[in-house]
Amino acid sequence: MTGGVRCMLMRGGTSKGAYFLADDLPSDPAARDDLLLRVMGTPDPRQIDGIGGAHPLTSKVAVVSRSPDAGAPGGADVDYLFLQIGVDEPVVSVRQNCGNLLAGVGPFAVERGLVEPGGAETAVRVRMLNSGSVATATFPTPGGRPAYAGGTAISGVPGTAAPVLLDFEGTAGSATGGALLPTGRVRDVVDGVEATLIDNGMPVVVAAAADFGVTGDESPAELEARLRDRIRSLRLRAGELMGLGDVSGASVPKTTLVAPPRAGGTIGTRTFIPLRVHTSIGVLGAVTVATAVLIDGAVGHDLAELPAPGEPMGIEHPTGRVDVDVRLDAADGAGARGVPAVRRAAIVRTARKLFDGTVFPRPPGDPHGA
């Protein structure tokens, strides 16, 4: 492995990560994680000796393989394992999905020959191994190759690119045992604050910004400086309530502070991932927050400007907004606790291939390594 590993660097949504074929990495998880830490330059706050970008949003890895049930009715085409790589700590986490890197998985699968293009556009069914849930990514493939240029703009990314439609199937309870509301309650009091603990693809603690003495319109840097310790305490307690156990070394749950919208959207958000503030919002985090504010009695429901039925919800964040289509069915699967069922969740992202080649990891056993 010291001779180099085949790798494609891609921007997926508002994140950036290294994409690998599973066959190009060690099959042993410990050996794989050690290699990826050396590839990304972790641990080092600058990741100066690797390809990581010194931020959680740019220290990500997608591992992709052909699904065992590819071609079978209802089967997935490819399997996608997301790995969150620590920046200044030698940590590799598999405890969450990443919907932003998911946007690049379909094009990557076509680029690597795992999936045959379907004509002018291609739909790829992706099994997210972190949760077992499935999403369909649909993107243009004129001439049998993924198109990256296009006219779709997403907040947090300069310019425009080709659209990637992500349609999620059965994402509720991705990491918390299959429950949309892991505690069975719409609201809980956690660390002295009212919160909605919810998981529709991403475990999230939804709390009102006003309960932390902020407006929800502050910059990421200001919120980190003011609330880092407070958020740490909140998420540690919430993690236990959500059935995640000790989350002190985990990247989930995320914490999203909500406030009234200020730019014509549905709800304003600031999201800690888990202690840095996201410069926008994650795909599955946006889906989960949108789901929360649709539920009567949940934190944020009374702050939201809900759109007309069938219209997308505008989730405002520090660099703009993202439109999410979430539809609930209160009758279907509501059960004794009255928890609604998720009928659909969809979002449009973009992706772009940045380079394709060989990455050379730091040598094993380097003293500044793990």
UniProtKB/TrEMBL annotation:
InterPro entries: OMA_tautomer-like, PrpF-like
EC category name: isomerase
Swiss-Prot/TrEMBL keywords: Isomerase
Domain of life: Bacteria
EC number(s) from the headed UniProt entry: 5.3.2.8
Gene3D superfamilies: Diaminopimelate Epimerase, Chain A, domain 1 (3.10.310.10)
GO MF term (any one): isomerase activity
Repeat is among the record's keywords: no
Pfam families: PrpF
Family: Belongs to the PrpF family.
Protein name: 4-oxalomesaconate tautomerase
Source organism of this protein record: Actinomadura sediminis
